[in-house]
Specification:
With about 300 residues, this protein is α+β, with helices and mostly antiparallel strands. Helix content is about 25%, strand content about 25%. The strands form five sheets. The chain has a five-stranded antiparallel sheet with strand order 6-7-12-10-11. A four-stranded mixed sheet has the order 1-2-5-3, with no helix packed on it. It has a four-stranded antiparallel sheet with strand order 13-16-15-14. Helix 3 packs antiparallel against helix 4.
Length: about 300
């Protein structure tokens, strides 16, 4: 592979769809870091039926990777082999009724939270299903009722909260399931009070996190009983630089693309941080950011 991307006939082997199939699709614009190589083929399904039909007809030897809005994602510089599926507008539906909110999995957390607030349900229900996302004392597992998913064979399955086998920043559901819809249950409350709490959380994040930078959110999981940012700070990594990547001065569990970083810069900096923390504290930090694709030097 060179700068032009993958040179394969993969797209010709794939079933016809009503959505969009794009060969050598740039992935960098789809991630918050704004780095990374292309997808060999990018698929944007028209709806659930289009997705199920595609998966049922997709050759078994073709790797399939699913991405969301790219907030906790690092795509390596060599790109992603096989098919990358990105769920778009048809999967952004949100419905609130009583104590329940049903949302398509492409809906932004903040949009789900606002819909919940309008219905009088606290807005901490948003979160990543696959990583049991959460913050400020609440996790996805605390409010999730059930999830609708599509298997690699194109079969629709429904999983209960228990079927997800959640633990801290971990989901035990099969990796090949593509989540398309989730049902959450909150507890009714005063709309004004909920809105005020949401505003308080937003203000707190803006004050403590570099959310307006090219970042991927929290880089490492918190070790049990400890805070990653404190271990990173104690290891002298605040502001550490590698190429165009930097450990945030504002919150040192965030990596930042300062403008010209590569995915290798960011991943390498993360590994530098892990090594320093291990040396100073004996703790091995685990990546929270999902890293996909191949390094540029391994691309063919």
């Amino acid at each position: 592979m060179n700068a032009a991307g993958f040179h394969t006939d993969l797209i010709e082997r794939l079933p016809e769809v009503r959505g969009e199939l794009t060969a050598n699709a740039p992935m960098a614009p789809l991630t918050w870091f704004r780095v990374g190589g292309p997808a060999e083929v990018l698929f944007r399904p028209a709806d659930v039926e289009d997705l199920t039909a595609f998966l049922a007809g997709c050759p078994e030897d073709v790797p399939v990777t699913v991405v969301g809005v790219g907030s906790n994602l690092l795509v390596r510089d060599g790109g992603v082999k096989g098919v990358v599926i990105r769920l778009g507008k048809p999967f952004m539906t949100i419905e609130a009724e009583g104590d329940f909110v049903r949302a398509g999995t492409a809906a932004l957390d903040v949009a789900v939270a606002r819909a919940a607030q309008q219905a009088g349900i606290p807005g901490s229900i948003g979160g990543a299903l696959r990583m049991n996302g959460g913050a400020y004392g609440s996790e996805t597992k605390d409010v999730l009722v059930e999830v609708k998913a599509v298997s690699r064979k194109g079969e629709i399955v429904t999983l209960s909260n228990a079927d997800m086998h959640y633990s801290y920043r971990h989901c035990g559901a099969p990796d090949d399931l593509i989540f398309v819809e989730a049902l959450y249950r909150g507890h009714a409350g005063d709309k004004a009070a909920i809105a005020a709490r949401m505003e308080e959380i937003t203000s707190s994040r803006e004050a403590s996190q570099p959310i307006r930078s090219r970042t991927g959110g929290s880089t490492f999981k918190n070790p049990e009983g400890q805070k990653s940012w404190q271990l990173i700070d104690a290891a002298g990594c605040r502001g550490l630089v590698r190429g165009g990547a930097q450990v945030s001065e504002q919150h040192c569990n965030f990596l930042i693309n300062t403008g010209d970083a590569t995915a290798a810069d960011l991943e390498g900096l993360g590994e530098d941080v892990r090594a320093r923390v291990k040396e100073t504290s004996g703790v091995t930090l685990e990546w929270e950011i999902r890293r996909i694709g191949i390094p540029l030097k391994e691309a063919a």
